[in-house]
Structure formats: C-alpha cells, structure tokens
Amino acid sequence: MFGLSELAIILIVLIAVLAAKKLPELTRSAGKSARILKAEARAAKDQDEPGTPRVVQGEAIRREDGGASPADGTGTGGQGAPRG
Q1: To the nearest 5 percent, what fractions of the chain are helix, strand and coil?
Q2: Is 20 helix (H, G, I), strand (E, B) or coil?
Q3: Is the pTM of this model over 0.70?
C-alpha cells in the first residue's frame, strides 16, 4: 500500500500542518543553539593554541605631567598609591 518514503512525506506534512505556529520559534531556537555551539567550539580551539596572541583594541593616552604611568611599572607617577 504505502512505502516508507510515502509515509515519511505524509508524516512531515502532518507535523508541518499541526505545528505551523511553533515552527518559526523552533527554527529560531535551533539557529541560536548552532551559533552558541560554534562560538564555544571556536573558544575551545583558541584556548588550545596558547601561542596565539590576543589583540585587544585600546587607546594610548599621553600624560601631560611627564610622570611615569603605572602601566610601565616604574612607579605611581605622583598619583599616590598604585591601583590594583
């Protein structure tokens, strides 16, 4: 009467009709899960490679008083106790 492929198609259509309201939410959730999994896999890979330098974008600030900055390790620059 019906083969396996016909039953599978009928089942897919039946699920699509009955769950039409939930399908967008389900696909959105699956997409979020895939992105999270991909990000975690990338983070684990980066953690496994300790020789790879991490670049952090920042901005260099010149001090006008000519004092040493705490970042260079030479002192507090006349600003009191170093921040920790």
Answers
A1: 50, 0, 50
A2: coil
A3: no
